[in-house]
Amino acid sequence: MPRLLVRRPSPRLAEGELTHLERAQVDPDLALAQWDQYVDAFRARGWDVLEVDPADEHADGVFIEDAAIVFGDLAVIARSGAPSRRGETATARAAIEAAGIPAVAIEEPGTLDGGDVLKIGRTVYVGQTLRTNAAAIAQLQGLLAPRGWEVVAVPVTRRLHLKSSVTALPDGTVIGYPDAVDDPAAFPTFLAVPEEHGTAVVVLDERTVLMSSDAPETADLFRARGLEVLTTPITEFEKQEGCVTCLSVRLRD
Ligand code: CIR
Question: Which domain of life is it from (predicted)?
Fold first, then answer.
């Protein structure tokens, strides 16, 4: 059974880092209700939900995807380019090791956020961003190449993370909102989506994706391709430059 690692939002969510967006009013109660709904969408599909210890002192701690990336039987613990976020990894690491997955950490001078790592088949695209640097990408390459993964660096300037710029459908088609993508030709396939918040999907299984409720035309586009599309409201996290991927780490069997 697939497992999902999540961390409930801090009451201080509104104080998190912002890079490309203006600060907007965030409702912490609504954020918690939306987080519950997000987690329930996985539960309803048979995912086992593992809660990482709350870290209320870390405003961005809910964006657990940034703290660790799982590659089959190996977890890589990130080291954010935002120093305010580095304290989030200890609890994430403990949860991953408790789940039976050995972990190794990115080391200085490397910086890496999990939001910059997009896996498609055995290819790992890594965004070079304000959060993720070449030193970390070289460390990833050293860890992953012997395990049969190909690491491909992708410059990202228009959004915070690679996965706020592009994600992929179950068949590997890369999707993105054109304004948010530096170079669609960096990927073997590219499908433009009509809405900003349609850029991010989480693959639940070969036929099903989960995405923000705030991209109805994109949801219809995916349905027309034969996918089942579940939507969930994440407005309070989108205001903080989060998206549907960053609220969890997926542990797939
Ligand atoms: C940050 O700037 O770090 C947070 N406010 C948002 C992180 C979103 N993470 C993600 O998309 N993977």
Answer: Bacteria
- Taking the C-alpha atoms of residue 34 and residue 36, their distance in angstroms, rounded to an integer, is 5
At the topology level, CATH places domain 3-10+27-251 in L-arginine/glycine Amidinotransferase; Chain A (3.75.10)
Helix/strand/coil percent split, the chain, to 5: 30, 25, 45
What is the atom index within ligand 1 of the atom nearest the CA of 246? 12
How crowded is residue 204: how many other Cβ atoms within 10 Å of its Cβ? 21
| Chain segment 179-188, per-residue pLDDT in tens | 999 999 999 9
Which ranges of 99-160 would DSSP assign to H, the alpha helix? 134-144
What's the confidence (pLDDT) of residue 253?
73
Distance 164 CA to ligand 1 centre (A): 9
CA of 62 to the centre of ligand 1 (A): 9
ipTM: 0.98
User: 38 in ligand 1 pocket by Cβ < 6 Å?
Assistant: no
192: left (phi over 0), alpha (psi -120 to 50) or beta: beta
Q: From the alpha carbon of 131, which atom of ligand 1 is closest?
A: 3
Pocket test residue of 62, 64, 84, 113 for ligand 1, highest count of atoms within 8 A of CB: 113
Q: Tell if the pTM clears 0.95, that is, is over it.
A: yes
| Averaged pLDDT of the chain | 97
pLDDT tens for 89-111 read: 999 999 999 999 999 999 999 99
Phi, psi angles (nearest 5°) of residue 178? -50, -40
